[in-house]
Amino acid sequence: MNRYLSNESFMNEIEQSEIDYMVDRMRSIQLREGNPEGVEIVRIGHATCFYSKTMPWPMFNTVKGLRNEDHDLIEPILSFYRERERKPRIELVPSLVNSKFMAKLTGQGFYQSGFHTSVYIDPMHYQIEEQQSITIRELGSDEFDVYATIHCLATGLGTEGIPYVSMNNRILHDRKGWRFYLASVNDTPAAVGVMYMQDGIASLTFGATHPEYRNRGLQQALIKHRIEAANRAQCRLVVSQCAFLSSSHRNMERSGMRIGYIRATWERES
Which domains occur in the chain, in start order? Predict the structure, then answer.
């Protein structure tokens, strides 16, 4: 029997690991001279609220960590974003909020827009076999333009986003807990993967493959490589998030990861 199944404290631990890496990521951007991206991180009740003035994407304007006890704090949270003319994304973990809580969100014009899967694995004794045509190594501090190129082309941001993605990730390179990996096919950079470690938990925070190198097993290789690296770093748990039944989800399950929970994504109507 899965010893983690239906364990509320374990669900809290998975969610907290995601909050931890987002806090560190956003704080590193915030600490750039003059805070050019206009980043703010505030705690209201159990919720951690992320905001960026210049980065309007949901990832950077999200509310995480809500609990039933925060029922009366929904309005102050929404007021924080309203004052900044931003519609936040709200992420809810099953069993940690009830129907009354969700009804109040509905009354504020929110609707459930999707699902996202949180997965995990115990990395102890995890072993991998590298594919001969794929080599994986840690990214050098002078290679973030390579990282950003793959990131932008894979996610559809376009090449104009490369300088910004490069800068906002380069500042993480020397921060405690962060590791960036580059996968190459026959010595050609083809895919990237990122991991953040804190309090014995490793989060696989991002992965992307250059469009020309998809369907070659690169992401699965990067997942396995990071799990094994987390084990060497004596992490007791590896977690990640992915769209439900996406290719990322399938790659993670093929790598031995299991579903911890499926959280709900809530957004506000236009």
Answer: 8-117 (no CATH), 134-235 (3.40.630.30)
